[in-house]
Amino acid sequence: MSAGFGPATGGHVLTRAVRRAGPDCFTVVMATGIVSAALRQAGQPWLSAGLLVIAAAVFVILSAGSAVRAVAFPASLRADLDRPDRAFTSFAFVAACGVLGDRLASGGYRLPAAAAAGAALAAWLGVTCLVPARLAVRRPPARLAEVNGTWYLWAVGTQSLAITAVFLHGLGLLPARSAVLAAITAWSAGILLYLVITVLVAGRLLVVGVGPREATNPYWVAMGAASIGVVAAAGILRIPGAPARAAITGLAVALWSIATAAIPPLATATAARYLRRPVRPRYRADMWTVVFPLGMYAMGGLQLGSTARLPLVDHIGAVAVPCATAAWVLTFIGLATSSLDRRHASEDSKETISRYDRRKDEPPGPGRDRLTQGGDEVEEENEAVQVPGSGQVRSARRRHRGGDAARADPPHGGTSPSPRHWRQQALQRSDYPWRHRKRVPAGRRTGHPAAGGPR
Description:
The chain has 455 residues and is mainly α.
C-alpha cells in the first residue's frame, strides 16, 4: 500500500497534524482558560474546574506538539514566522500562558502558575525580538493587505504579562512595588501597541478592504485586546498602594467602552459573511478567536464592576458569561464533530484501498470485463439495481479502478485521488482521443499516431 495515503495509518495522521499545527492553535487554551475564569468569577466553580482541566490538558498536548514541530519541521515554523498574516499568532502562546496561569493561581495551584508565568515572560521576550525583526528584513516587505486581526495578539500577549505580575503578587512571589511597576509597564505598552495596530488595521480596511474569501473571525481579537486591558487594569487596582488609581480607572472604563462598541460591527460583519454566501456552518480553527474575546469581555466587566463599583458594568459582564459559555460549547462541538468526520473519512479511505487491492488480483468473472487503458485496469460489472419508488429493475454498471493508478499518491494531499487527477492522467495517455487532449505546440506532439498531423 502506498504511503501517499496519509489516513491509512495513525502515524501519518499524527505526523500531518503536528506539521499543520501552527502557533494559532493555542487560541483554544486562551478561550477555554478565560471562560473558566469567568465562570469562577460568576459563581460556577464546578463548570469552571471542568474547563480548567480541559485547558491544562490541551496546553500540555499542544506544547509537546509544538516542540516536536519545531524540531522535526523547522521549515514549516520558519514559513509561519515569515508570513505577516500569521507571524503574530505566535503571541497566542504567551497569552495562553498568562490566562492559564491566572486561572491556576486563583485555584491555589502555586507551582504550575509560577511555571506558566515564567514561560509567558520567556516566550514574550523571544517572540518580540524574533517576529518584528524577521518582518523588518523580509524581502519583499510586508504589504498593507497582509495586515489582519491576528496582529492584535501582540497587544494581547503584552497585556497578559500585566495579569501575570498581578497573580504573582497574589501568590506572594512578587513584592507589591515590583508587581505594580511591572504590571503598569506591561499594561501601558499593551495600550500603545493596541493603538498602533488599530491604525494599521483601519488603514488596511479602508484601502484594501476584506477579501471575499478572507475570514472575519480574527478581527474579533480587536475586542479581546481591549477587554484584556480592562482585566489587567482591574488587577492593578487590587494591588495595595497602586498609584494613579483614578487615571487607571478612567482608562479601564474607556477600554471597556471600546470593547462594547466593537461588538455590533463585528457581529454584523460576521453575520453578513454567512448570509451573503449561505453555506452549512463548518468548524474553523479561527472560531476560537471569537470565543476568547467574548470570555475576556465577560471577565473584564465582572472584575471592573466589582473593583471600581460600577453596577452597570458588573451586570453586563454577568450577562456576557452565559453567552461566552454557549459560544465555547458550540465551538467545542464543532471541533469534536470535525474530528469524527476526519476519522470516518480515514476509515473509508482505508476500506476503499483494501477493496481495490483485493480486486486487482481477482480473475474476471461472469458479467465482469476487464479493460486495459494506458496500463491502468478498469473493471466493469453489471448489477441489477432496484429503482426507488417503483417495481422496475434496471441494469447498472459499476466501474472499479485497479492497478497502480488506484494506489498512486494523491497529488492534492487528500484521502483519495481527485477526479481532476484522473482527467490529467487520461490527458497524458497516448491512446486518448486527440479531440479531448490539451493543445500543445506542434513540435512537442508525441506518442499518438496522429499527433504530428493536423487536428
